[in-house]
């Protein structure tokens, strides 16, 4: 067999090199990507998890009107409108009420003026007093009898009684007018609806021109005060105490954690769910606490410092216990670990991992032991 010439051998080596490079590129290109994070050292917390519901104080409240009539103003009764305590929400037509009250006030003013005129122009009292003095002088001179004096006195008393009765009647009329005006004010209040507290309109059920009956519901609103209630299982409630710190995550605001504190623990469980209610004071803006929004809470009931921490999604139940997928030099190592405290997003690794190692955080259970992977760091 003839030996290969130099240029032929070179060509064969180039072909083999190309084939090898292609095989390597194919191998690298088909390796699965693993999303990993580095095991951190930090503070582990023992957390009690539960569900959370946000309520408005007294929940959804109906707005009812006590009077009856035609709606003339409901400009602020619009869903989503923020209102302050005392804001006018609905007003009925009060024209007839105000006209009747004005007529009553006018009659009273006329009667009072007539009484003033009569009192100022009345000469009966002066005449009666003068007549009594004259009769008394005559009686002293012997020119008038005792009966004449008594008659003059009775005449004066009659005038004084009439004036006292007139003054009393004037006071009665003034008191009657004051009561009528107070009743008028109450009736006017019955013809309108004002916001009882600061809040937000949820719905409107009337419009301008609508006729409503007494006691009709004209709308509904949520008060600005919020109640955040957590539901905790029977197994965990004994760990929770008033003052414990907590973190709340609401489904309506994903990715945001709110600081909270346990403010009250009800001593009885729901008979159906067997879960206990824990009330939380939460540090959040009113706009973030939407009525009836839900979420999760982790109440911190214990803590340890300078321990290995991993995201909770990095751990899974494997054969024989809790497992993580560790990546070293591009190769997966499924490793059993011992977990301590668990918080909402992180878990303490008591045994089996050290700070600085890398673990898979996305579908870790889908990687097999010894598998080659391409690493993508979690950001």
Question: How would you sum up this structure, described in words?
Answer:
The chain has 379 residues and is of the alpha+beta class. It folds into four domains: 29-45 and 305-377, conserved putative lor/sdh protein from methanococcus maripaludis s2 fold, CATH 2.40.420.20; 47-57 and 224-303, Elongation Factor Tu (Ef-tu), domain 3; 60-93 and 191-223, OB fold (Dihydrolipoamide Acetyltransferase, E2P), CATH 2.40.50.100; 96-190. The chain contains five helices and 22 strands. It has helices at residues 6-30, 95-121, 124-141, 146-190, 234-237, and strands at residues 32-38, 40-56, 61-64, 69-73, 82-83, 88-92, 192-194, 199-204, 211-212, 217-223, 226-232, 245-250, 257-269, 276-282, 294-311, 315-318, 321-328, 331-336, 338-342, 346-351, 358-360, 373-377. Strands 1, 16, 17, 18, 21 and 22 form a six-stranded mixed sheet that branches. It has a six-stranded antiparallel beta barrel with strand order 2-11-14-13-12-15. Helix 3 runs antiparallel to helix 4. Residues 21-29 have low confidence and may be disordered.
